[in-house]
Amino acid sequence: ASYSFLLEQLGVDTICLMRSCNGLLLFGHRRDSDSYDSLGYIVCNPATEQWVTVPSSGWKPFSLWDSDESEDSDSDGESSNCRFTYLIFDPAVSAHFQLVELWSDDCVSVEEVHTYSSETGLWCKNPSEWSSDEAVSFFAGSAFVSGMLHFSVTNFDAHQEKIVAVDGEGKRCRIIAGPEKSGDAAIIGQSKGRLHYVSRRADSTSKMTELCIWVLQEYNTEDWVLKHRVTFLQLFGRMSCRDQDYNVVAIHPDCNLIFFLQYWDLQLKSYNMDSKEVCTLRILRVGPQHIFPYVPYFAESTAVAGKH
After folding, report:
1. What is the pLDDT of residues 12-27, one digit of tens each?
2. Is 176 helix (H, G, I), strand (E, B) or coil?
3. Helix, strand, coil fractions of the chain, as percent rounded to 5
4. In what order do the strands lie in the sheet with 185-191?
5. Residue 139 three-state SS
6. Which of 6, 22, 111, 148 could bond 165 through an S-S bridge, CB–CB 3.0 to 4.6 Å?
């Protein structure tokens, strides 16, 4: 969908899809005349065409604020190179949503944590509990399971892969050992209510040749089970691939499917773990793109009160 009703009603020039969670979508938006510190959000329910705007958290790209030419940088020195924003919405628990924004200087480590609640309408800066020796696999996505966001994290010193669970206030609530000691996460996701982890494996020449799909059978344990393995020859018709050749973009929330994008021809494809079939879904016009699972939520909510 073009979401033209958002562009028309809100008077913004562009919107960018950022996240999806239980029927709500998170967009970033900015008018061409806006500065970076006014970069804000829209949370939208496409099924009801309801939306609400969320103000900027105050994030500013570090490159704009580290030069001698900048005369109006924050006295607190709050700035970073990149931010990663996540949407939390669990209608079984609350009609309200939350945003968790992780600020990073190097797109790997977490420097600051900022959170927003639709109940209070306020952004809060929370103490960071992240260690400097931890690398977050931001580009492997996140999974919303059991009311928390889950991220794949590597400990630099121990070379140990782990899953860190974060609540709506940005607090680290649980650490789960990864299915492989030194795994390479392609994506983590949720399917059938369970946490899934897709890792990449390499051959003796360090070329990526295989995907392994793991599932955490019981959430309160660390009982990972290898659900499926598939070679790159089966997926791409190539013995090996480089990171710039493809991207695993999503796990189906109800079926044994994974979705991936071939960058060399921009084909969005699915792989069925049961039938072992690869299907081409469509050819995209541009890439890469943000691609997320979406399940409609038809109930209207006071948290997203605007309507077309």
Report:
1. 667 888 999 999 999 9
2. strand
3. 10, 45, 45
4. 185-191, 194-202, 208-216, 224-231
5. helix
6. 148
